[in-house]
Amino acid sequence: MGGHGKPRKTVIQLNDIKETTVASASSFDALDKAPLNAFHRRVTFLSGMGVFLEGYDFTNIASALIFLVPYFHLQPGQVALLATSTYVGTIIGAVSIGYLADRLGRKFMYMADITLYALFALLSAVAINYPMLVIARIGLGFAIGADQALSFTIIAEFAPRSLRGKLNASTWIMWTLASAFTYLLSYGLNPILHQETWRVLFGLALIPSVIVFIGRRDIPESPRWLVRQGRIDEAREAMNAVVPGSGATLQIDPNHVPSAKRRPVNLAALFRSKRQTYGTLYIFFMWFCVTFNTYGVGYFTPYILKTLGFTSNLSLMGGAVVSLFALTGAIIMFSSVERVGRKFLATIGFGMLALIDFGLYLASDSHIFSVLLVLFSLFQLVVWIGPAGLVGVVAPEVFPTDIRSFGTGLAAALGRLGAITGIVLFPLMMKAGGLKFAMLIFCLDAVIATAAMLIFGYETKGQSLELESPAFARHESVASKSVSG
């Protein structure tokens, strides 16, 4: 009798391991293999609108400053603080709300961030003095950062596996559309509203944010997050909301699900295995390096052309033309990300970016408008086909469910830090060594990023979101040892 007890215990343990492994990997097949439906389109649109609002607010400040400088009699230091205030708020929001979303759930934070956005958009529009405007813009950035941590995560956790990258990539098309829309809106409002144009630019963001808030109320909690909490019945209900009847396929014993409550959400969790460390460094390098380059070069494109001696109208026209290539690049990335894969696009994108930066280094003495316009246009085309549009695709794929929002939020925060660094350092580099020196630094950034993609990058196309779960990896290892023993 005693001899039978030990093997029986092993069998039960193996069954438990098998059940947990299935829970981690294949119990979401009904979601992973579902055809694209109305729910997927809706959650992508409602999350993508958060990205649209980000693009709108990161762009409208450039136009608004034309009116704000004389309105509040701003000094250069005040202009710099106002221009970067939204980015500072984004860093805080992405990290803090990303952390809370992994602890408390996606749904509540998903609603809270759009509520905060609407509030601070209104406060920005009615600001009566400079300090109030800066505080409102920091708050607006906080809401934008929170949404960055959540929107890409939520799309990824609901999307079919074969369309996950494409759906997240589509949100960047909305970003580039928002940027173009902002310039057109500023151009159209200026002759009518004059000095008050900035208030309308800021206030109009309230309309889509209210619409998004209403639409998001019906989006359920992520079933993947609910399973990690052991809330299986709620997870089944959430799955049914995505794909009717799919909840019945989730056959999990709650006692055999490792609860995320027992695992810390912290920096160490982002480096808890070799593969997780590579994934973390992969997206960290990607997001920081691409924003350093794009905000350093792209943000100042009209300014660069102006400093090279071209007229204001010609410089602004050049900026408008270049923005169309950004939109084209985002569309190409959207159509190719599921066919070509993430790592290839990111690596080739950074490699081409290094060549274009070097081309701008060589052409900086030419003062030939057509040559510079072609190079700046290629810059935007390549960066949006590659890393600029991929960051939101890759981030939720390299982090497991229990740290996905935190990891994505931290990566987004590093991206904003890269943007601030590029914006702040560019004028200093121009002063120190001119455009040639600045472009050499940006070229070096792209070379480092290319190397990082080759060293740390791995393909996440078609990968299960659950396979990187530490519980899955641990149980898979224990199971194989038990079987071999």
Question: Can you walk through the features of this model?
Answer:
It is a single chain. This protein has 485 residues and is an all-alpha fold. It has 2 domains: 26-219, MFS general substrate transporter like domains (Growth Hormone, Chain: A), CATH 1.20.1250.20; 272-473, Up-down Bundle (Growth Hormone, Chain: A), CATH 1.20.1250.20. It contains 19 helices and no strands. It has helices at residues 2-25, 29-32, 38-72, 76-104, 106-125, 130-158, 164-193, 197-203, 206-216, 223-228, 232-242, 274-298, 301-307, 312-340, 342-363, 369-385, 387-398, 404-456, 470-484. α5 (106-125) packs antiparallel against α6 (130-158), α5 runs antiparallel to α9 and α15 (342-363) crosses α18.
Descriptive key words:
single chain, 485 residues, mainly alpha, Growth Hormone, Chain: A, 2 domains, 19 helices, 80% helix, 0% strand, globular, disordered N terminus, disordered C terminus
Q: What proportion of the residues is helical, as a percent range?
A: over 70%
The portion of residues forming beta strands comes to under 5%
CATH superfamily of the largest domain: MFS general substrate transporter like domains
Give unreliable regions as ranges. Answer: 1-25, 469-485
Residue-averaged pLDDT:
84
What is the number of helical segments per DSSP (H or I, 4+ residues)? 19
Taken together, the total number of domains comes to 2
Structure classification: mainly alpha
**Oligomeric grouping of the chains:** single chain
